[in-house]
Structure formats: C-alpha cells, structure tokens
Amino acid sequence: MLDWLGAKHNDQKCFEMATKLESTIFDLVKSGIKTKDIGGDKTTTEFTKQITDNL
User: Fold this and answer.
1) 14 and 20 in contact (C-beta within 8 Å)?
2) pTM value?
3) Which of 6, 26, 29, 40 has the smallest CB count inside 10 Å?
4) Which stretches within the chain are classed as H helix?
C-alpha cells in the first residue's frame, strides 16, 4: 500500500517507509517473533506492538 501511495503521489517518503516497515517485519520473523498462524506464540496485537517498537 505504501509503495502504491508513493507511486501515485510521487512521494519518496512513502517508498522509504514501505522499505523500513518490510525490513522490520522480516527481521522480527527471522528472529523468531511470529504470530500464532505462522508458528509463533504472539497475538496480532503483540506482533504489531513489536513492529511499532522496532520502527
């Protein structure tokens, strides 16, 4: 969505945030912090909190 918004509005900040968000999520999953639906023990709320803490 952020990539789309960046393209639609020619907004570099959207592209940068999309990259940062994606990287943060990948890093969390690689470190074993995952939601229950993909084999972890976190709720969606807990996982989202981890994302915001890491941003």
Assistant:
1) no
2) 0.86
3) 26
4) 2-9, 12-30, 44-54
Contact 54, 28 (CB under 8 A): yes
Measured on CA atoms in the order 43, 47, 48, 50, is the torsion positive or negative?
Answer: positive
Residues, the chain: 55
d(CA 35, CA 30): 12
Strand partners, 35: 42
Rg (alpha carbons) of the chain, rounded to whole number: 13
Q: pLDDT tens digits for 26-55?
A: 999 999 999 999 999 999 999 999 999 999
If one counts the domains in the chain, the total is: 1
Structural domain of residue 15, as residue ranges?
A: 2-54
